[in-house]
Amino acid sequence: MSTSLPEILESSELRLGAIRLSLPVVQAALSGYSDWSMRALAREMGAPYSIAEVAIDSFVANLRDRRRTRHHLLVQESDHPVGAQLTGSEPELFALAASRMVEAGFDVIDINFGCPAKRASGRCRGGYHLGQPATAIQILQVVRRTVPSQIPVTVKMRRGVDDSQQSRDQFFEIFEAAWQIGIAAVTVHGRTVEQKYAGPSRWSFLQEVRSAFPQAVILGSGDLFTAEDCVRMIRETGVNGVTAARGSIGNPWIFRQCAALLHGGALPEAPGVREQSEVINRHRELAAQVLPENQVLRQIRKFCLFYAAWHPQAELVRADFIAVQSWADWQQVLSRWYAEEQQGRYPANPGNLTSGCRDSCG
After folding, report:
1. Which residues make beta-bridge pairs with 242?
2. Per-residue pLDDT tens over the stretch 91-142
3. How far apart are CA 8 and CA 13, in angstroms?
4. Which of 38, 177, 230, 350 could form a disulfide with 225 if both were Cys (CB 3.0 to 4.6 A apart)?
5. pTM of the model
6. Rounded to the nearest 10 degrees, how much is the dihedral formed by the CA atoms of 51, 52, 58, 64?
């Protein structure tokens, strides 16, 4: 299956229930990354919709209003539409956590049946549920029944626990049930749970799902490291949209790049060093608005290891960011490498940048 550019443009409005999104490329949930500051920056840079980092149902259900944890339920006026992603093991806790997320102001509840991290599957969460279709379907039913009808419920899945026929059958059993229950959209990652992030994502499986459920809203995931990857997945598989996950870390420009390509334009030039500096500083400002002071530097330094890839002296800049121990160190790196305007460069081998965040659930 290959979708032409005119067909993509004609159907570029992505819908999640009654929510209409102008770009079929959204900010995925990423454990440890897609906090409020990353999502807010992505929205400023063109993302039409973002999903908060995955939260455990019991954590949300028991979360108290404390400064150090308040940001987990933070929704501001400029965030809409925004989704909350939940993982867990008990249907009742899922429902309670979903209700709390709706009360906090989230517009969509996204259920995670895709995370391959041991801390998820080892505790009967995430991708584990793909091997337990009865429980998975019960969770979908309870959450859909619990949250208000105008709130879309979506689900993230991998193509199965493994490559056995049983796993394949269980995937389609859950997908069929989701469609019948009224799940607004399903994100499908082309790897198995056992595969984690090793080997290529099987995009051909997305074509199979698209053919089996031509009326369903399907988003694709897996090996989307550049804007070209995002557009190619839409064209080759026929999915309604894609979720920018690991490829969006330190790359909030990916949304405007996708918009340019989807509207028939050329890939924009890489952002210059001065623009990179402005975005890095903006990310810091946003993080400082919501995170405790002692967490801001650690979080921003983590992102700067990815931002550095856009610099013409990427390896040297990254090494300097790795050595940062204080705000004075961080400012020194900016002064040394970002003071003079230079043309940026697209990262070389962008897929390799995320080798340190294999359990990101993206």
Report:
1. 25, 220
2. 888 999 999 999 999 999 999 998 776 554 445 567 888 999 999 999 999 9
3. 9
4. 350
5. 0.90
6. -140
Report whether 192 contacts 163 (CB < 8 A): yes
230 catalytically annotated: no
CB atoms within 10 A of CB 2: 10
Amino acid at 232: R
Of 115, 230, 304, 361, catalytic: 115
Peptide bond into 81 cis (omega under 30): yes
Tokens (6 digits) for 194: 């056992």
Tokens of 350: 């962008």
At residue 112, φ and ψ (nearest 5 deg) are -95, 110
Q: Which of 139, 79, 140, 141 is nearest to 104 (CA)?
A: 79
DSSP label at residue 50: E
What is the maximal distance between C-alpha atoms in the chain?
59
Residues in the chain: 362
Q: Which amino acid is at 87?
A: T
Residue bearing tokens 């009742």: 92
For the stretch 289-294, contacts whose Cβ atoms lie closer than 8 Å and that sit 24 or more positions apart, written own/partner, are 289/37, 290/35, 290/36, 290/37, 290/70, 290/71, 290/74, 291/35, 291/37, 291/71, 292/67, 292/68
Other residues' Cβ atoms within 10 Å of the Cβ of residue 346: 17
How does residue 166 score in pLDDT terms, banded at 50, 70 and 90?
A: very high
Amino acid identity, position 325: Q
